[in-house]
TrEMBL record:
GO cellular component: meiotic nuclear membrane microtubule tethering complex; nuclear inner membrane
Annotated localization: Nucleus inner membrane
Protein name: SUN5 protein
Main location: nucleus
Sorted UniProt keywords: Membrane, Transmembrane, Transmembrane helix
């Protein structure tokens, strides 16, 4: 993770859909951004702030999955720039034991940059559908 080497999108809102390598029972999601100390501008206003995590079996945005169900919300959280740069957020487990193929990260706002938002790393935590403990 180094300054400027991020996934960026225009403005303060955006989304990314991640296709998982297998169907996964999700437990948490981790988001990472750089710190003020390593930022060339001395700020981290391009960091995401308010984020919602959706899941579906199909990767369509706002659509219906193979079982006729719309995508489901697994959590809404705030990435805090004053905390550690790597932040893990537990996801709701009300949909378990379902496993999902796609995760959508919807960034609703950032910390003040009007031109772009950057995400340096996203990690999805869980157990693959066919994996035994």
């Amino acid at each position: 993770v180094s300054p400027g080497r991020c996934w960026s999108f225009k403005g303060h809102q955006g989304q990314v859909v991640i296709r998982l390598p297998a169907r996964v029972h999700l437990t948490a999601i981790t988001v990472q951004h750089i710190t003020k100390d390593v930022s060339p501008s001395g700020t981290v206003i391009s960091a995401p702030k308010d984020i919602t995590v959706f899941v579906s079996l199909l990767g369509n945005s706002g659509g219906v999955d193979a079982d006729g169900e719309e995508e489901s919300v697994l959590g809404t959280f705030t990435y805090h720039v004053e905390k550690e740069p790597v932040q893990t957020f537990p996801l709701k487990n009300v949909l378990l034991p379902r496993a999902f193929s796609y995760v959508k990260l919807l960034v609703k706002s950032n910390w003040g940059n009007p031109w772009y938002t950057c995400i340096y790393r996203v990690q999805v935590h869980g157990r693959m559908e066919n994996q035994t403990d």
